[in-house]
Amino acid sequence: MILRWSLLCRQFLMNQETGNLSLIDVVDTIGVPTAPPGELVGIRAELNFVGCIVGSDSEPSASVDFKVRTPDGEDIQFANATLQFEKAQDYTVRFHLPLKTLPLKGVGRYHFLVLKENGEVVGATPYDVAIGDGPPKFPDTSLEIDGQRPKRKSSKKLSGN
To answer: What's the pTM?
Structure first.
């Protein structure tokens, strides 16, 4: 069993005809007004943890634990499920966990963990908690080629005929 992908988002929509997902407001940083260091508290989140787990025919079902690992390494259980893997779906199961609250124990890098029943980590999804009212402003990280950054093309208006 492997975690193919997972992420945090505010909303997701599933196209009933195709089964495709639209992920809305993907979150990798959560801003909080204050974060008491070392004290475990719950913060209101209103997020969704969405992902895809792939099993195999040798493992038709699996009990899975979902935990949050705090920056200081503490694992906090928040859900568990029994997944059924079927050949007709290529042994793939999508999951959706609505989150009303998240554990908070100071600022830093947190991880959502997906674990097998025996405690083996199948996958981890990082997210950051920072002081502030929104996501941080990220620096320009465009690739440099031979010491030069690519020039950005200006957008042009297209005229209609």
So the answer is: 0.75
